[in-house]
Model the fold of this input.
Amino acid sequence: MHPPLIRFTAAAILLLTATAARASLLSGDALDTAADVLAIIVLIIVPIVAIVVFWLVHVLPERFAEKRHHPQTAAITCLCLLSLVFGGLLWPFAWLWAFTKPVAYRVAYGTDKTEDWHEEMGEKAKAGELLQSEMDHLRTELDAMAAKGALPPNLRQLRADLDRLQAAPAAAPTVAGGSS
Done:
C-alpha cells in the first residue's frame, strides 16, 4: 500500500468515529450558575481587592517615614494621598523621599528626627533604658537644635530633664558614701 492511501484511510476512520466536542465540562443550569459566580467575582471582588492593594502599596512610603522618624512625615503623607489621586504617578517620589536622609533639614534645624523620636528617647532615658552613648547622642541632637533656635518648649524641658538625670547619678554615690 502507498503511504498517502494509509494516511487517507486513517483520517477517514477518525472522522467517522469522532463524537461531538464540548466547550465546557458543565452544561445546562450548572453552566449558568458557574457563569454567574464568575461574573460576580470579576465585577465585584476583583475591583475591591485591586483598590485595597493599590491603597496599601501607596501608603507604604508614609509607614516607612514614620518608622524611620523622618521629620517630614506629614509632607510624605500628603504626597502619598496626592499620588492616589493622580493614579500613582507621584508614588515613586514619595518612596524616594521616605528613604532619603534629610540632610538639608538637619542643616536648617539641627536634627534629622521628629520631635516624637526625641520624646521617646527622653522617656527611655528617664526609665534608665538608654546607654550612655545614646544619652550623649540625644543631648547632642538637642543642643544642635537649640543652637539653631529650633528647640520647641517640650524639647527644652526634655533637655533640662536630661541634665537633672545626669546630675542625679553623680550626686547619689556621694550621699551613699557619706552615710557609710
Q: What stands out?
A: Residues 29-58 form the longest helix (30 residues). The chain has two domains: 31-100, 101-168.
